[in-house]
Specification:
3 domains, three-stranded antiparallel sheet
Length: 404
Amino acid sequence: GAYFSNYSAWLSDPIGIKQSSQVVWPIVGQEILNADVGGNFQGIQTTSGWFQMWRAEGITSEVELYWIAIGGLCMSAIMLFAGWFHYHKAAPKLEWFQNAESMMNHHLAGLLGLGSLSWAGHQIHIALPINKLLDAGVAPQEIPLPHEFLINRELMAQLYPSFGYGLAPFFSGHFEQYSDFLTFKGGLNPITGGLWLSDIAHHHLAISVLFIIAGHMYRTNWGIGHSMKEILEAHKGPFTGEGHKGLYEILTTSWHAQLAINLAMMGSLSIIVAHHMYAMPPYPYLATDYATQLSLFTHHMWIGGFCVVGGAAHGAIFMVRDYTPANNYNNLLDRVLRHRDAIISHLNWVCIFLGSHAFGFYIHNDTMRALGRPQDMFSDKAIQLQPIFAQWIQNIHLLAPETT
C-alpha cells in the first residue's frame, strides 16, 4: 500500500475508483493483467478491504502507510526476540499455562480491556476527526496531520464542541456531554454506507470498561474472587448427573481438548463475522465494493469451516489419547457419550428432513416453470419466502437506538 497502491486516488473518489496495490511490470506481455481501475491508474484490482480499513483508521496518505510499515517491522523484530527469549532463555513451566484464573484476569483486563480502550482512544482522537473531514469533502492532503488532533484541543473542539469542556464532564459524571463523538445512532452512515464511526468508538469504550471490570473477577493470590473449578462444579442441572465435574482437569491437562474448544469457538466466530460484515459493514465504502464484500465473506467462511473441522479432529484425538472414563463418571461429557446413538440418529433424520424439503422447493419451482406458471414459483417476484426471524431481530436492533 505504501509504494505501489493508488490509495490517495481512491481516497478522493472511493466509489468511482477501484483499489489496486500491485502493478505488473511489462515483461513478456504480462502487463495485460493490469486493469484500468480509474483515476489514471492501471494495476491488479485488490479485494481485501485494506483501503476501507485504512480510511476508517484515519490514514490519509501513502507516507503514513510507509511509517506504519516501518513501525510494524520494528514491532515484529521485538516480538521475534521475545519469542526466542521465552523459549530458550526463560521458558515458563507447564504449570504456568494451567493457571486459568490469572490467565483470565490478564487477558480480560489487559488484552481485551486495555486493548479496546486504546483502540477507542485512537478512534476518538485520530480516526473520528479525519473521517468527519473526509465525509465533508475535504481533500486528504488538506487535512491536518494525525498528531495535530492529539496536541491541539482547539482544533478538535471545532469539530466536536464537547472537547472544549476537557475532562470536567468525565469526573463530574456528566457523560452525556460527550454525546457528539460517543453516539448511539444505529444504522449506517448515508455518505459511506458503513456503521457510524462514532457508534463504533462508543462501542469500544463501553466494552473496554466491561472487560476491565471482568479482569478483576477471578481469584489468584488473594482470597477474593471466583475460582473457575468451583464455578464449573457448582453448575449442576436437575437432569445432568455430576454436571461439569472433571471438565476443569480435562481442559488444564489435555492440549487437544483445549485446542478443540478454541478451534470450534474461533470457527463459529469467523462464520458469524462473515455474515455480520456484509449486513453491517464496519468500514467506510465497504458496502458498495461488491467484489470485496464477496471476497471477505468467502475468506471468513473458509477460515470458519477449517477451524470447526479442526475442532472436531482435535476433539477426536483428545477422546482417543487423553480421555479417562474413570475420571468422568456421569458428568456432562460422559452423558453425551452414552447418548451418542440417540443424538446421531436424531441429527440424521433432521438432516434428511431439511435436505428433502429444500430440494422440494427446487422441484416445485422447476415444475411450475415447465408448466408455464412462473407466478406460482417461490421467488422474490412471486411467492416470497421472507426471513421473518432475521427481520424481527434487525427491527429490534433498530428500535434500541430510536428509543434512547
